[in-house]
Amino acid sequence: MVMRIKVQYICMAFLYVGGFPLYAQKVTDDTISGKTHYIDEVTVKASVATRKVTSTTPVQVLSHRQLQQQGITDIADALRRFSGVNVKDYGGGWRYENRFSA
């Protein structure tokens, strides 16, 4: 009985999907007519809204020299040097390959 229901569902799906090409658009000729169409001049104006600075955000940079001096060898170790960043190792068994060379 279950097999018969599955066959009925499959047949209904084919009938449903098979009707889609009937609703397709008519194919139009894609050849260029050789006519030139002109459009009116377009003027674009833009302005930048000035914003009042309400707070400052500190920027932290690690230079190549600092990376070498501090013995930083991977990105996780480099990120640990920034304030407000926590790097956690959950021991997922993954291996990090360093393909960066400076």
Summarize the structure.
With 102 residues, this protein is an all-alpha fold. The chain has helices at residues 2-18, 64-69, 75-79.
Report the mean per-residue pLDDT as an integer: 74
Q: What is the 3D form? A: flat
Stretches where pLDDT is under 50 for at least 5 consecutive residues are none
| Strand segment count | 0
Strand percent estimate: under 5%
For the report, how would you describe the main beta sheet? none
Please trace the helix and strand order, writing H or E for each element: HHH
Structural features, described:
By secondary structure, the protein is mainly α. It has a domain at 58-86. It contains three helices and no strands. The protein has helices at residues 2-18, 64-69, 75-79. The longest helix has 17 residues, at 2-18. The protein starts with a helix and ends in a 23-residue tail after the last helix. The model has no long low-confidence stretch (mean pLDDT 74). This is Outer membrane vitamin B12 receptor protein. Keywords: Receptor. Pfam families: Plug.
Observed structural traits:
single chain, 102 residues, mainly alpha, 27% helix
